[in-house]
Amino acid sequence: MTHHSIEVDDLHFRYPDGTVALAGASFHIGHGESVALVGPNGAGKSTLLLHLVGLNEPQRGEVRIGDVPITKATLADVRKSVGMVFQDADDQLFMPTVGEDVAFGPLNLGLPADTVDKRVTEALDRVGAAHLRDRPPYRLSGGEKRAVSIATVLAMCPSVLVMDEPSSSLDPRARRRLIELLAGFEHTKVIATHDLDMALELCERTIVLSAGRVAADGPTDRIFADTELLERCGLERPLSLKGCPVCGGTRP
Questions:
Q1: pTM here?
Q2: What pLDDT digit, counting tens, does each position of 128-152 carry?
Q3: How far apart are CA 223 and CA 251, in angstroms?
Q4: Is 90 among the domain residues?
Q5: Residue of 6, 10, 27, 81 with fewest CB within 10 Å of its CB?
Q6: Half-sphere CA count of 154, side-chain side, radius 13 A
Q7: 93, HSE (Cβ side, Cα atoms, 13 Å)
Q8: What is the pLDDT of residues 198-240, one digit of tens each?
Q9: Is 145 helix (H, G, I), strand (E, B) or coil?
Q10: 50 in any annotated domain
């Protein structure tokens, strides 16, 4: 049994106010793939990600991690395999210190103290935040909070990383560090983002969501070169693929 693949089959979800967020989304993500999930606001990206970690329950359709369907009975095991980095890092950082935040998940797995300490050290080292271990999260910069929120997920040793707008609110240097960090991860990755240049750099495959359905699914460079598709789905080509507005040449 593998926990590295994701299967979404005819997924439907409507919010209590009647808003349809997902209307039959289906796709398969294989072991080790890095996939961008893109689309305009309201396309269903965040709602779909919440299904991948069991925070939303399908109203119709199914989500499977490996060969395990996500249900109430399997939820605890699934969450050991899938880690989610939320759009707002403050949703994940709530303990008095960074070290305690990163230790929270492993401690709740019932792991021994020495194993937890090792996981905290390794996770913070991996994201370049070991020096922040004793700092309170509220004193961190946006980029530092993002790194630590990723460390809280890595400490759980997941097979799949699910990320919602990981580059939002980051300055250019912090964004570059994030891209370099994510490029080094061997996990299966699903990255929902409006940052199409980051998607182009990190993800060999892109899924375009529009009105809760998969509008396109294929190689990232081919998807982003399809101007008609992007315009139809409320998107624009990445800046790196646009011509220079002054000379008309291609950007380097």
A1: 0.89
A2: 899 999 999 999 998 899 999 999 9
A3: 18
A4: yes
A5: 10
A6: 25
A7: 25
A8: 999 999 999 999 999 999 999 999 999 999 999 999 999 998 8
A9: helix
A10: yes
